[in-house]
Design goal:
The complex is a heterodimer of chains A (about 450) and B (about 270). Chain A is elongated, with a radius of gyration of 30 Å. Chain A has two domains: about 200 residues, no CATH class; about 230 residues, no CATH class. Chain A is an alpha+beta fold. In chain A, a hairpin with a 5-residue loop joins strand 1 and strand 2. The longest helix of chain A has about 40 residues. Chain A is built from 16 helices and eleven strands. In chain A, strands 1, 2, 3, 4, 5, 6, 7, 8, 9, 10 and 11 form an eleven-stranded mixed sheet that branches. Chain B has a 13-stranded antiparallel sheet. Chain B is about 20% helix and about 45% strand. With about 270 residues, chain B is an alpha+beta fold. Chain B is built from four helices and 13 strands. Classes of the chains: A alpha+beta (about 450), B alpha+beta (about 270). The interface between A and B is medium-sized, with 18 and 19 residues.
């Protein structure tokens, strides 16, 4: 054990002795580690924002949706007898955080100066515990959305429609029987845009949605099951399978698993030869599958950038080690001559690299985490174009402990591996040759 | 001497203006709520027919950077159950289209697609600046709560100026109206229609009023022969409505049906 500490002391002294080189290389490693932390923090932040936004605006972590077909060719995103569905969900998924139900629709919104097609989600705002925490209101009051004949839209939509809080808009949509119906609603709240998903989403009280589509009180669009964050990645497939079995056991017809958003299934469902109700169990990734490419693109870009940075580190370390070995060839020869084994020479150089890597990565990862916290605290506004993909008006980086440790370990291991070959070459030097080296 | 004359003139002027002010203050004494409701009832009553109604309406729509559009329509109403119908007769492209109001639901029929669509009271009739309620009997006392805003001169007319706020639970084209009612005749002279955000949406002028004797009412029924609507959102847009050939004779019982309106385009 004491020998290990002696080795550590030698490695440390050697690093201090060559402080310029140590400082230069250490800074480079620290910078790369900080960048790695920031890139991964951005990717994680976007993923978390995406989950939060998506699960607020358009999907639960697990959904029991489905289609009701009046005739074989007409499919509507309606779940009838939804209270019984909720009962089954509550029994089958006891670990869920909460369950809500929402109406689904696609309609034309007409103001005095313009019109646009957008999704209309029917909600009971009083039973939505997370809704208020994700939306940031520009004007109006969220509580007013509990009143019938009201609507919440996003600022980009308000701008396009030329409306503000208090103005009326008309919503027009075909009912399940194909007759066009309209309702007038009053804008009661305008929220900050939340990127891609909020571009075509608006919220009205579920009773107003039922009035628009002429649905009865037992109908809704989807039952959304919300889970605790720890269960999101691990338990969703198992919960979905469990729910499918339970719903089939309770007598419902359940559609086979299809990882697409509900609105992408209209055509295929309309082609199928059945009428009545069929339920569809999906998860949040299915419902936003059309846009997870943004996350994948960001992750892909991060991987490429990190690979380039690691390659630079490897080249830098190997190069520096070659120089160090060249400078210290006579020292190696002397050490070998007084009885140091090859393995000990290898260990000496490796330990030096590992120590340098560890110090630098700890500093870099801490700096990265600090910068991420600073950026989050600064509430930096991102340009509108970028908001579209980041799903938030602000830049959000998420640096967890696991990410910090992972970055430190990865870059330290890379540093050690980069130093391995030059260290091996140093260890193989013959003492006579090494001692007679001039350079 | 000159200074004394000036002082006297000034004092006299001040006294005179004070008297005028006091006098006008007494004249502008605010109406109580029952008085305002009575006033609105009088306005409604003058236009009420208590029976059937048929008339032609010409709608001329002017829009910025667009060719003017003129529609000829026939419209029908029945006081008893508040039924209402508009049938477009010209131009040819719009002939057969119509609006039918039954059970407080407004339906639009387009013969080119052969489908009925349910519309709301905000619907712009034929895409013009007019709304269904502009052609119907006045129901201001029933639909709005008034607030007095004093008296105002509109040209040669002295008018009561009221702010009307829509009662809850009623489907209205405009939730808030500022209205000028001729003090002498109780005819509506001008209206400003607002959204709940206080945004001015439309200004309407009623320059010509006419009367027709109604057998069912056993009295005269007043109607605006000409209405001018000015869009306050799209400033260049305006609509002129001319009402002609009013007939208050009883209409066939089956007139206010989807089948009747559909038959007009066959």
């Amino acid at each position: 054990m004491s020998k290990f500490f002696v080795d550590l002391a030698i490695a440390f002294r050697s690093l201090v002795q060559h402080r310029r080189r140590t400082l230069f290389l250490g800074t480079a490693i620290a910078a790369v580690t900080a960048l790695l932390v920031l890139l991964n923090g951005l990717s994680t932040g976007v993923r978390e924002t995406m989950i939060d936004t998506a699960t607020t605006l358009s999907t639960g972590h697990v959904n029991v949706g489905g289609f009701f077909k009046v005739t074989a060719g007409q499919a509507a995103p309606v779940v009838t007898d939804y209270k019984r569905v909720i009962e089954v969900v509550k029994k089958t998924v006891p670990e869920m955080a909460f369950v809500v139900h929402r109406g689904r629709g696609w309609a034309k919104i007409v103001s005095d100066t313009g019109s646009m097609q957008m999704g209309v989600t029917g909600i009971d705002v009083r039973s939505e515990p997370k809704f208020a925490s994700v939306l940031q209101l520009v004007s109006g009051k969220l509580d007013d959305l509990a009143e019938p004949g009201t609507i919440l839209i996003f600022d980009n939509q308000a701008e396009k429609l030329g409306v503000k809080v208090g103005d009326a808009v008309t919503i027009s949509a075909p009912t399940t029987r194909g007759t066009n119906n309209t309702i007038d609603v009053r804008v009661v709240a305008i929220a900050h845009s939340l990127g891609l998903l909020s571009t075509w989403n608006s919220f009205i009280p579920i009773d107003s949605l039922r009035k628009l589509y002429q649905l009865n009180q037992d109908s809704t669009g989807v039952v959304q099951v919300m889970l605790d964050r720890k269960d999101i990645d691990k338990k969703i497939p198992e919960i979905s399978a469990r729910l499918r079995n339970a719903l089939e056991g309770a007598g419902w017809r359940v559609m086979p698993a299809d990882p697409r958003a509900f609105w992408m299934k209209f055509q295929s469902v309309a082609r199928e030869d059945w009428t009545g109700q069929k339920l569809d169990v999906t998860n949040w990734e299915d419902e936003i599958s059309f846009m997870t490419w943004t996350l994948k693109a960001l992750q892909g870009m991060s991987v490429v950038l990190i690979a380039i940075l690691i390659a630079i580190i490897i080249i830098g370390i190997m190069n520096t080690m070659w120089i160090a070995i060249r400078e210290r060839t006579r020292e190696i020869g002397t050490l070998r001559a007084i009885g140091m084994h090859r393995a000990e020479v290898l260990w000496m150089f490796l330990l030096e690299s590992i120590m340098l890597g560890l110090f630098a990565t700890v500093a870099g990862a801490s700096a990265g985490a600090g910068i991420a916290s600073g950026l989050n605290a600064a509430h930096l506004h991102v340009p509108t174009g970028l908001q579209f993909f980041l799903m938030s008006p602000y830049l959000h980086l998420s640096v967890h402990g696991s990410l910090w440790v992972g970055s430190v370990v990865t870059i330290t291991v890379v540093t050690a591996l980069a130093a391995l070959y030059p260290s091996l070459r140093a260890a193989r030097l013959r003492p006579v040759v090494a001692m007679s080296h001039f350079g | 001497m000159k200074t004394r004359t000036t002082s006297f003139t000034l004092a006299f002027g001040l006294l005179a203006s004070l008297l005028v002010h006091l006098r006008s203050g007494r004249a502008h004494a605010a109406l109580t709520t029952p008085e305002m409701v009575e006033l609105l009832k009088a306005v409604d009553d003058r236009q009420k027919n208590n029976g059937d109604w048929r008339a032609n309406a010409y709608l001329e729509q002017k829009e910025k950077d667009k060719v003017d559009v003129v529609y000829e329509t026939e419209y029908y109403r029945r006081s008893q159950d508040q039924k209402f119908m508009i049938l477009f007769t010209k131009p040819k492209s719009s002939a057969g289209q119509g609006y039918l109001r039954i059970d407080k639901n407004l339906w639009f029929y387009d013969p080119s697609v052969g489908k009925w669509e349910r519309r709301t009271e905000r619907e712009r009739i034929g895409g013009t600046n007019s709304r269904r309620s502009d052609f119907d009997e006045s129901r201001l006392a029933e639909e709005y709560d008034p607030t007095d805003e004093g008296e105002e001169k509109l040209g040669a007319y002295t008018a009561h100026k009221l702010l009307l706020k829509g009662k809850s639970g009623i489907d209205l084209a405009f939730p808030m109206i500022r209205i000028w009612i001729d003090k002498a005749t109780k005819n509506v002279l001008k209206r400003q229609e607002y959204a709940l955000s206080n945004r001015l949406l439309r200004t309407s002028y009623y320059p010509k009023w006419k009367k027709v004797f109604s057998e069912s009412k056993k009295a005269d029924v007043y109607y605006p022969e000409e209405i001018r609507f000015y869009d306050e959102v799209e400033k260049a847009n305006q609509t002129l409505v001319l009402i002609r050939a009013v007939d208050t004779k009883a209409l066939p019982a089956n007139l206010f049906t989807k089948a009747w309106l559909e038959s007009k385009s066959r």
